[in-house]
Amino acid sequence: MKFEAILFDCDGVLVDSEPITHGVLRDQLAESGWDMPIDECMRHFIGRTVRSQAALIESRTGRPLTDEWMARFYARRDELLRAHLQPIDGALDAVRAAHAHTGGRIACASGADRGKLLLQLAKVGLTEWFGPHVFSGHDLPRSKPFPDVYLAAAQSVGVAPERCLVIEDTPTGVQAGVAAGATVWALRSTTSDAAELLAAGASALFDSMRELPQRWQIEGGLPSNS
């Protein structure tokens, strides 16, 4: 089919934020009494909001997950993101190509809080490409794995979800895109399991964001402007 819009996740797809964010989270959880390796922390939390795992955190730390705790986490996280965040290899070229191929019908749809999302896009120079089409699951009734954020993104660019291609990297995100009715391609990484991505509903897997422009023309049926 010919995709008319491309909707991108952010963390792990556009920006290499997961090691930074989960390093901060791991350290703060350790301070609260739940000490674990970084890879275990990432298995628990990648693709999920911290607040959605409140029951798990409270059971392991024996302490309530308070607004003060979350504010401290956000402040520490954002400080390191401002200092160290880098784009995923090939992401900038992929976004530019998607914008050209679709006539600007692209959006960013993330499960992250809006402050983090905007900080990250600005840090790596992607804000101008998405314009107003940036959506946080925190601002909607339900975040991923529910489809709300992708439905909002599709509506914002004026394309039916069934005509959208979603680019994701976690089973939770894949589930959200599929639930919205979109086609989902998933980026394989050291933090994602190929079998889980396919089981969640991904119709294709790829290994690098650098692959996407050519694959869109060959497999996705996107028209070329050349």
Overview of the structural elements:
The protein is of the alpha/beta class. It is built from 11 helices and 6 strands. The protein has a 6-stranded parallel beta sheet with strand order 3-2-1-4-5-6, with helices on both faces. Helix 1 crosses helix 2 and helix 4 runs parallel beside helix 6. The chain starts with a strand and ends in a 6-residue tail after the last helix.
Would you kindly provide a brief summary of this structure?
The chain is an alpha/beta fold and 226 residues long. It has helices spanning 18-31, 38-45, 54-61, 67-84, 91-102, 114-123, 127-130, 148-157, 171-180, 194-200, 212-220, and strands spanning 5-8, 106-110, 134-136, 164-168, 183-187, 204-206. It is built from 11 helices and 6 strands.
